Amino acid sequence: MIGPLALFPACTLLAIVFALFGSQPSKSYLDTIVFSAAMVGGSLFYVYPALLVYGVPISILLKKFNVFNLPMVLLASATPFIIIISIGWVEPIGPFFLICFGSIVVAIGCWYTDLLFFKNKN
Predict the structure, then answer these.
(1) DSSP 3-state assignment of 91?
(2) With a threshold of 0.90, does the pTM exceed it?
(3) Averages of pLDDT over each 10 residues, the chain, 122 residues
């Protein structure tokens, strides 16, 4: 359950890149980093329920079918977004890609958490 905490460094790095190279470069990098941390902290209220409702069952299925590897975990985390885009997304694409980025970061965080804590217990 510490996988979603990978959002903090990933989104901080993303905020720094946007602050440096975005369409409106920020002059206060500390404000950008604090804002990013506040956004991630707020997003954890829906990330953890999504992890419990979608991520845990998907990881159990991947383990059951013996295909629990990083590429499959990443594909499973991006599948809802692939389906939504194929159905037809009419809203601005920027927030959609930001949420997809967060989903992939959480998947990578959960993958490496599983490797770190549970791989030696098999």
Answers:
(1) coil
(2) no
(3) 75 73 67 76 80 87 90 89 80 76 84 76 54
